[in-house]
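Q: I'm writing a short explainer about alpha-1,2-Mannosidase for a general audience and would like to include a description of its predicted shape. Could you first generate the structure from this sequence?
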Amino acid sequence: FAFSHRVLGSLLSAHIIITDTKQPFGDMSIKDYDNELLHLAHDLAVRLLPAFENTKTGIPYPRVNLKKGVPPDSHNETCTAGAGSLLVEFGMLSRLLGDSTFEWVARRAVKALWSLRSNNTGLLGNVVNIQTGHWVGKQSGLGAGSDSFYEYLLKSYILFGEKEDLEMFNAAYQNIQNHLRRGREACNEGEGDPPLYVNVNMYTGQLMNTWIDSLQAFFPGLQVLIGDVEDAICLHAFYYAIWKRYGALPERYNWQLQAPDVPFYPLRPELVESTYLLYQATKNPFYLHVGMDILQSLEKYTKAKCGYATLHHVVEKTKEDRMESFFLSETCKYLYLV
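A: Of course. Here's the predicted structure. Afterward I'll give you a sentence or two in plain language.
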């Protein structure tokens, strides 16, 4: 689903840029353009719709065959991020087409997940059964399986102005601060460790492990968007320090051992996006240096004959023969914007 949304998102973005009467990026209009990209986006979204059928909760299946629909042997389990991160693209498509179907199924999925949060902590888990609504993964955190659920609540509100999205985000953000944040009270002063967001049990709030994953580096950017710039600066600095040490972000980093737990780096965009948003908010040239530093690390360690390669090991700098779709659609985009 994440992959199809990179495709849907790109088609819609390109369509909006081409048809924008203001042309803010210089003249990117196309002569005789007849909404072809919008039609392709619509076609793709229609092929994704079967994922939302035959699910008792309204939470979509994790995989869909674009030709045949949901495979008969499909899993009934999906992650919170995958199921709850559809609103930006589906909402935009619905508004461009004047067809509410897409936004409606995406919003139904978000509300279904939201209704399953713990009564005690207000937290959500990371893997759910789409038929029963039972939490299979009880880990609550800001990394893999959860990250973009929170991101899309706020970005949807910014895009569409629906108050319920902001209300859900504010409640979720408060629960995150209450249960996931560890370290000193104020970010840039006082005693104790700098703030860190850990993985906890969604029902009890108790620590589940001592690692964070690189996907969490999106969170400073989200904090910028909600207005917590001070905290964003601090958390970003924590991830950038890890980047400085290895010239990349390990997929999982053990903050207790201060060493990588899972040592590969698949060219992820999250730290770059947060860098971009912090530069826009502060105009501090430091973030331009961070962007340049990341760019130079990528050039130095990941460049390959036909593109850029996943780093197999951030210490040894060995490569893997793959380049994920988010490298072009997000990592390069945010580096360009910086």
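A: For your explainer, you could say: Residues 212-337 form one domain.
Q: Perfect, that's easy to follow.
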